[in-house]
Write a structure and sequence with these properties.
Layout (H helix, E strand, L loop, with lengths): L4 H14 L4 E5 L1 H10 L4 E4 L3 H5 L7 E2 L7 H6 L6 E5 L4 H12 L4 E5 L2 H7 L8
Parallel strand pairs: 1-5, 2-3, 2-4, 4-5
């Protein structure tokens, strides 16, 4: 069977369109909070140190220290199909983590613009639990 260039292009585009699309976006605190509240099966990751986490964090957040040697191995154990909301203090670490997760094939990663400082500056709550 002989295929024309146009037919091959259509097949290639169709195959690409059928692939799951990964998203990695940076959200302002209000948008981050609202989207988090609608996504009941999401995971909130605080990528700061345990000491920083204990000083206050977003309710329900799991602490996963970016600076630990086994950080990427811990990421590899997470479900890539879930939505992840990632934050740190000002956004540097979480931006790096969001890129790593995107590169590892996580489907939905949301990074908090400005980190926990911006979250608090917008009057959003933190907890000490």
């Amino acid at each position: 069977m002989k295929l024309s260039f146009g037919s091959l292009a259509i097949i290639f585009i169709t195959l690409l369109a059928c692939q799951p699309q990964s998203t990695h976006e940076t959200l302002e605190p209000i948008d981050f909070s609202e989207l988090m509240s609608y996504d009941f099966h999401s995971v909130v990751l605080d990528v700061r140190t345990p000491e920083e986490y204990q000083e206050g964090h977003i309710e329900g957040a799991q602490n996963m220290d970016y600076y630990r040697d086994d950080f990427e191995q811990k990421l590899d154990k997470l479900d890539k199909e879930k939505s992840y909301f990632v934050y740190c203090t000002v956004g540097g670490r979480s931006s790096s983590v969001a890129k790593i997760m995107h590169d590892k094939g996580f489907q939905k990663v949301h990074d908090l613009a400005g980190g926990l400082e911006a979250w608090e500056n917008d009057g959003l709550p933190i907890t000490l639990d």
